[in-house]
């Protein structure tokens, strides 16, 4: 069973950068899409970015041009590089994957808090 562990969250000033990491274990990594979602207080969890097994990416409009998703299959790790952070990016960020190829995102990490101060 796949396990996901996020790291890299923290407190940063507006305009700053953070890089989140998500280490996967328990199964083959390279064959599955990986994604980042976020949930702000009082809001529903929302899609941020994903990357397919082939490396193609999708980025939410709200973070396009500021966030980049990448993966290192040798390290079983997916990254979210966040630049030009804004206070509205404050949220718990969750790493996710699918339990089967081409399935919905239904496996979640524990989340990592990102707080952007103004």
How does this structure look, described?
The chain is mainly β and 118 residues long. It contains no helices and 11 strands. It has strands at residues 3-7, 10-13, 18-25, 34-39, 46-51, 57-59, 67-72, 77-82, 91-98, 105-108, 112-117. The strands form 2 sheets. Strands 2, 4, 5, 6, 9, 10 and 11 form a 7-stranded mixed β-sheet that branches. Strand 9 and strand 10 (105-108) form a beta hairpin. The termini are far apart.
Cα distance, first to last residue? 40 Å
Structural class: mainly beta
Radius of gyration: 13 Å
Return residue spans where pLDDT drops below 50 for at least 5 consecutive residues: none
Largest sheet, if any?
A: 7 strands, mixed
Quote the beta fraction. over 45%
Shape: globular
What letter string, H or E per element, gives the SSE order? EEEEEEEEEEE
The average pLDDT value, as a whole number, equals 96
Question: Number of helix segments?
Answer: 0
Please estimate the helix content: under 10%
Number of strands: 11
């Amino acid at each position: 069973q796949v396990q996901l562990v996020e790291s890299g969250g923290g407190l940063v000033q507006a305009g700053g950068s953070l890089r989140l990491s998500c280490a996967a274990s328990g199964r083959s990594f390279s064959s599955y899409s990986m994604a980042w979602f976020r949930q702000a207080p009082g809001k529903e969890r929302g899609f941020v970015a994903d990357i397919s097994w082939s490396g193609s990416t999708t980025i939410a409009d709200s973070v396009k041009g500021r966030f980049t998703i990448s993966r290192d299959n040798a390290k079983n790790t997916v990254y979210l590089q966040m630049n030009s952070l804004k206070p509205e990016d404050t949220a718990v960020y969750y790493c996710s994957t699918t339990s089967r190829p081409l399935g919905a995102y239904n496996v979640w990490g524990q989340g990592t808090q990102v707080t952007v101060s103004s």
